[in-house]
Structure formats: C-alpha cells, structure tokens
Design a protein that fits this description.
This protein is α/β, with parallel strands linked by helices. It is built from ten helices and ten strands. The two termini are 15 Å apart.
C-alpha cells in the first residue's frame, strides 16, 4: 500500500466567493468564505478548518506523506499546517506544500490536472511511486481513503452511488458520472450528464456512479498524460478526468471504480457552510488525533 496523499487546494474558489442567495452566516463566516481557500473555512470545532477533518481521516486510513497543493497566495495554509515548504509534522503526518503557479496571461489557475502536474514536478519522487489525490473541500471518509490505499489496481477512483449523496437533485444532476464495465473498469466519465443518457451509464448493479475527485494513480504511467493534458474546450482548464481517460485509452483495464455508498460533505458555495457545520457536529464532535485505524 502507498502512503502518499495529494490534496488539491490551489483553486480560485470562485463559486464560494459569490454572494449567497440565502444565508444565516455570521460576518466572520462570510469574511472567511470570501477570503480563504475553501478547505480553510472554519466549520469545525473551535473554528478549525474542514481540512483538519480530511487530514484526520487520512491519518486513520494510514497515509503518512501529505502534499497540499496551494495557490501563490496560499500562505494561510502554513499558519495552520507548518511553516516550512517540506516535512512539517502535523499530528504525526508529514505535510509538504506544492505551489500551483498561474501561467502568464491567465487570471485563474489552469485546472486540477495542471495543479497535479506542477506538484509532481516539484516532488518528482511521486513519479516513481503510487499516490492518491483528492479535493480539499470535500470530506472523504477514512474508509474511502483506505480503499484507495488498499486497491491493487494501478489506477482507481471512488465510485459513489448517486442515490446516497445527500444533495438536492438539481445539484446532483451536474455531477460527473462514470461508465464502468461488468468488472468495474472505467470506460468513460461524462461531465454534466443529461437525463436521456443516465440509463446507459448504470453499472452492473443498476447504479449511477459519480466521481467526486478521489483518485489513486500510478505515478510512472500517469506522468506523460499529465504533461500532455489538453485544455478543455469549454472550461478552458486542464482537468484530471481528461488525464485519467487518456491513460485508460492507452492502458485499458487499469482503472477500477471502487463502489461506495455514502454522503460526501462538500464546501462549494456559502450555502454549504451551515450544512457542513451540522454534519461535523453530528459525526465529529471532537477531533481525536489519537484514534487508531
């Protein structure tokens, strides 16, 4: 099993910064939502960030080396998780930072594939190892993260049961869905699916499977696809699903969808803050870093 987890935290958080339609947030919460990276918003006990809880689950799952990809203005991460660029000790986790630089001529980061490519350029040892990747603004369970460590498949992703995600239907309808074969090998990922294609994307159990950006990669085989990732024609970004699909085309039957049926708390917009706070109060009444897997 591998011990490396890369956390994507260098995005612009543009949806979080939009004005909320309805909200009961305090002035401090609104200020954090407008100014901080989403994973650093204080939704937990004593105002601790959501990222604390993700790191706690990563530790429970057995990860040791954490690489947090931050933006060029990501200094606040170092106030929470260590002042050095490499090898900070945070509750027994080895925390290092990679910086996603914005290319000249762009105002926003160049997407998740660009973020990971810049990270593996800064930490080339990842290109000879296996590693997991996830978002900083989602709270994946320790069980899901452990499943990524345990799988023997060269590449993998957590394949969530769409029906188990406790989001409004309109929101779920925008999530990317995965097409798997009878052996749960990845065939395709479709962004923003329309209702007329859902039937053909059902898996062998009749479930619609959703990707929430929780991946396991073989660094050696993924590197070329990261480096050569094309720009999405509509979103003008380089995206990890594109990299994964290009890898599958070249190396069929190397990417399994690991079935999970559970909710994944998500901090995308200001309206999510109250829901995530309620979830943490219910399921994580305290941050017990001594909990053993």
């Amino acid at each position: 099993m591998h011990n490396n987890l890369v956390i994507l935290a260098g995005g612009a958080s543009s949806r979080m910064k939009k004005e909320a339609i309805t909200t009961n947030l305090s002035p401090e919460e609104i200020a954090q939502a407008n100014e901080r990276s989403k994973g650093l918003i204080g939704v937990g006990a004593s105002g601790r960030p959501l990222l604390d809880y993700l790191l706690l689950n990563a530790k429970k799952a057995g990860y040791q080396n954490i690489y947090i990809i931050i933006g060029e203005q990501g200094g606040l991460f170092k106030e929470f998780y260590g002042s050095e660029m490499k090898n900070n000790d945070f509750h027994g986790l080895n925390i290092s930072f990679a910086v996603q630089y914005i290319p000249e001529g762009r105002e926003k980061p160049f997407g998740t594939a660009d973020a990971l490519f810049q990270a593996v350029e800064q930490y080339p040892e990842l290109n000879t190892q296996q590693y997991s990747v996830c978002n900083s603004d989602n709270l994946y369970s320790a069980a899901a993260l452990l499943a990524l460590r345990e799988t023997e498949s060269p590449n993998a992703f957590i394949s969530y049961d769409r029906d188990a995600l406790a989001f409004p239907i309109e929101r779920i309808s925008r999530f990317a869905i995965a097409k798997l074969d009878k052996n749960n090998q990845l065939l395709d990922i479709l962004e923003k699916p329309t209702a007329d294609v859902l039937e053909e994307y059902k898996d062998i159990d009749g479930k619609i499977r959703v990707s929430m950006n929780a991946f396991k990669f073989n660094g050696a085989t993924l590197y070329t696809h990261l480096k050569n990732c094309p720009v999405h024609p509509e979103r003008d970004e380089k995206e990890l699903p594109t990299v994964l699909l290009n890898s599958v085309k070249e190396n069929p039957d190397t990417t399994i969808g690991i079935a999970f049926s559970e909710h994944v708390p998500d901090l995308t917009a200001k309206e999510d803050i109250a829901d995530v706070k309620e979830y943490l109060q219910k399921y994580y009444p305290d941050l017990n870093w001594e909990t053993k897997n």
